[in-house]
UniProtKB/TrEMBL annotation:
Pfam families: FCD, GntR. GO terms for molecular function: DNA binding; DNA-binding transcription factor activity. This is GntR family transcriptional regulator. Signal peptide: none annotated. The keyword Coiled coil does not apply. Residues 15-82 form the HTH gntR-type domain. InterPro entries: GntR_C (IPR011711), TF_FadR/GntR_C (IPR008920), Tscrpt_reg_HTH_GntR (IPR000524), WH-like_DNA-bd_sf (IPR036388), WH_DNA-bd_sf (IPR036390). Keywords: DNA-binding, Transcription, Transcription regulation.
């Protein structure tokens, strides 16, 4: 009987407490809610998550391996703040991976997905023009737009690679977006998103790639000017 069931039933994925903590903490870091340089402890994370330190330690070890957290000499943890050289390397990798994903998505994208990406662009535009910017919601709208595009390429391994590289700089987004001297009306992203949507409608792979690369490059240029990178 067991052998028959094995052929008929799919194995269910076992989700551990550590897996859940890893996923929740990863999403928190991706949201930009925790600023770069912020220190955290295993005990503090365990208290916030209402769990024991053991699964937190397991989840944290994975995040350290991915570069989303860094271990300090005293066994504490810190959200990384990249130096200029590392930041520029990350930006170059982002341009390659995300530009490629955009071009590949155009080859297979359907009208419904284009409409969904346009809706995310409009939400980002709306949030960016409010009298008071909610940085976390605006970052989320931007992330939804980008990953709706990348996922449309139908290349899950590529999406995972992009997520992993975002993890290393996502904390910088909110610091840059929240600065008073950068008026939201002047954000270059609005124009880049419009050009992206237009390229998607026309199924222009190179136009979509260029819009994404320019969006990344202009945001990176501003982040460099903020002084939020580590000094080595």
């Amino acid at each position: 009987m067991d052998s028959i069931l094995q052929g008929l039933l799919q194995k269910q994925e076992r989700i551990t407490v550590a897996d859940q903590i890893y996923s929740e903490t990863r999403q928190l870091l991706m949201s930009g809610a925790v600023p770069p340089g912020e220190k955290v402890t295993l005990r503090g994370l365990a208290a916030v998550l209402n769990t024991s330190p053991m699964p937190v330690r397991e989840a944290v070890n994975k995040l350290v391996a991915e570069g989303a957290l860094e271990m300090l000499p005293n066994r504490g943890l810190r959200v990384p703040k990249p130096d200029l050289a590392k930041f520029r390397e990350i930006v170059r990798i982002r341009c390659c991976l995300e530009g490629f994903a955009a071009a590949e998505a155009v080859r297979v994208i359907d009208d419904a997905t284009v409409a969904r990406i346009q809706a995310h662009a409009r939400e980002f535009d709306r949030l960016g023009h409010l009298p008071r910017i909610d940085a976390l919601k605006t970052i989320e709208a931007n992330r939804n737009l980008h990953f709706a595009l990348y996922e449309a390429a139908g290349m899950p391994l590529l999406v995972t690679m992009i997520e992993n590289i975002w993890l290393q700089i996502a904390p910088l987004f909110s610091l840059s977006m929240g600065r008073k001297e950068r008026k939201s009306e002047s954000w270059e992203s609005f124009a880049h998103h419009d050009r992206l949507v237009d390229a998607l409608r026309r199924r222009d792979a190179e136009g979509a790639r260029q819009a994404v690369v320019q969006d990344i490059s202009d945001a990176a240029e501003y982040i460099e000017k903020t002084g939020n990178l580590a000094n080595i």
